């Protein structure tokens, strides 16, 4: 039985027992495509049209691999929008704000300091600052809602998180354009340094949380999950102030590869999922000890979210590791060199492989699983940051 089947069987059993909120769509026996309505197909058409516009307007800046990634992204986002409808409005708003920013620039980067909307809202730095502020405020409101049992606090926190995701993705899209305004030889996808990938981490973790929030019809987990996102925001702010990291720099030669465009996002889907699982594990341990027990979801729901997050994260981290090996073979002539970054990536992989093995084969549950998930976050954090800070190797271009 694979991870998806095991997750489906586990969730179905818990839904029949009344422990997990029931999604009525799970029991619609019609083929998936027959469940789609006119708005679903209109959304798909809009995505295809948007990709066509991007290819027509920006094809001089794209190589073969860029175009391939764009074409593969369309069906991915279409299916995502079909499965999770709130993301449709998010995609539309990101496109609207990003295109508005591009129009305001008029191919002149200096307008970021003179145009009101660019200076305070739609330049990449402004949008990312808005994202950071909204995520911290969302954390506060989630905690207010949890402690005071106020649905309003949680609802405000949720809306702020959605707004933060919107501004963050807009910031990354605009930053991509700004890099080309600096120079065609500088232009690159904004996932190449610690500043950019920390933004990506915040966005991916937030999106995964928002999905689980809707799927399980509870906002109580937000108070815990947003803590790790706010910690990432804190690092982002320190890194920007101390190292002026928000400045766009040319890519170092090791990163001038199309592999980066797929390896890094896959890696950070893994990191974001592992971080989310760890914080849900904290919520599990808190509830198990009777703290906020009547305000948090059931232990079964927390356990289910923890398992699904690790399963998804492990799948994407495995893909990212394979892609990284292929990239290494192209860049350095070998698939694996026991570089510190590679070694710690293997440690992370083995840790979560063992967690899933114990879950599926031995029925790992409860506080042991939660503590293990939390420990996994510490291992993952060292693999991501600690190696950059304390060890050297082929990946030394990622040093703090």
Automatic annotation (TrEMBL):
Q: Where is the composition biased (Low complexity)?
A: 1-15
Q: Where is this region: Disordered?
A: 1-22
Cellular localization per UniProt: Membrane
Where does it primarily localize? membrane
Q: Locate the Cytochrome c assembly protein domain: which residues? A: 192-395
Which key words tag this protein in UniProt?
Answer: Cytochrome c-type biogenesis, Membrane, Transmembrane, Transmembrane helix
- In the UniProt record, does the keyword Transmembrane helix occur? yes
Q: Which InterPro entries match?
A: Cyt_c_assembly, Cyt_c_biogenesis_CcsA, Cyt_c_biogenesis_CcsA/CcmC
Q: Name one Pfam family in it.
A: Cytochrom_C_asm
* Membrane spanning residue stretches: 41-58, 89-107, 127-148, 160-177, 189-212, 224-242, 262-286, 307-329, 341-358, 370-391
Q: Tell me the membrane topology, using the record's own terms.
A: Multi-pass membrane protein
Source organism superkingdom: Bacteria
Q: What is this protein called?
A: Cytochrome c-type biogenesis protein CcsB
């Amino acid at each position: 039985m694979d991870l998806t089947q095991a997750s489906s069987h586990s969730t179905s059993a818990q839904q029949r027992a009344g422990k997990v909120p029931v999604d009525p769509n799970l029991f619609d026996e019609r083929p998936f495509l027959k469940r789609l309505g006119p708005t679903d197909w209109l959304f798909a058409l809009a995505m295809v049209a948007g990709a066509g516009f991007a290819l027509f307007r920006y094809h001089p800046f794209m190589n073969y691999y860029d175009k391939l990634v764009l074409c593969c992204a369309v069906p991915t986002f279409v299916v995502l929008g079909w499965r999770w409808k709130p993301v449709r409005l998010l995609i539309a708003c990101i496109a609207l704000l990003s295109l508005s920013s591009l129009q305001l620039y008029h191919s002149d980067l200096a307008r970021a300091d003179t145009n009101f909307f660019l200076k305070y809202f739609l330049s990449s730095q402004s949008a990312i600052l808005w994202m950071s502020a909204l995520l911290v405020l969302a954390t506060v409101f989630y905690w207010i809602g949890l402690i005071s049992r106020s649905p309003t606090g949680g609802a405000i926190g949720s809306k702020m998180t959605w707004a933060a995701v919107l501004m963050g993705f807009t910031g990354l899209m605009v930053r991509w354009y700004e890099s080309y305004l600096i120079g065609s030889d500088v232009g690159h996808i904004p996932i190449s340094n610690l500043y950019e990938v920390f933004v990506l981490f915040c966005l991916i973790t937030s999106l995964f949380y928002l999905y689980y929030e809707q799927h399980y019809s509870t906002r109580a987990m937000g108070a815990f999950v947003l803590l790790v996102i706010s910690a990432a925001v804190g690092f982002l702010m320190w890194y920007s102030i101390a190292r002026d990291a928000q400045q766009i720099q040319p890519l170092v030669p090791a990163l001038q590869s199309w592999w980066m465009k797929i390896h890094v996002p896959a890696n950070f889907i893994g990191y974001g999922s592992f971080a989310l699982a760890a914080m849900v594990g904290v919520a599990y341990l808190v509830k198990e000890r009777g703290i906020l027990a009547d305000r948090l979801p059931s232990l079964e729901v927390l356990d289910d979210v923890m398992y699904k997050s690790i399963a998804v994260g492990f799948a994407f981290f495995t893909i990212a590791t394979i892609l990284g090996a292929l990239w290494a073979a192209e860049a350095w002539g070998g698939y694996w060199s026991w570089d510190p970054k590679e070694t710690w990536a293997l440690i992370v992989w083995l840790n979560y492989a063992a967690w899933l093995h114990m879950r599926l084969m031995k029925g790992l549950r409860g506080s042991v699983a939660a503590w293990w998930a939390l420990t996994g976050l510490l291992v993952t954090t060292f693999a991501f940051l600690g190696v950059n800070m304390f060890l050297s190797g082929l990946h030394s271009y990622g040093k703090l």
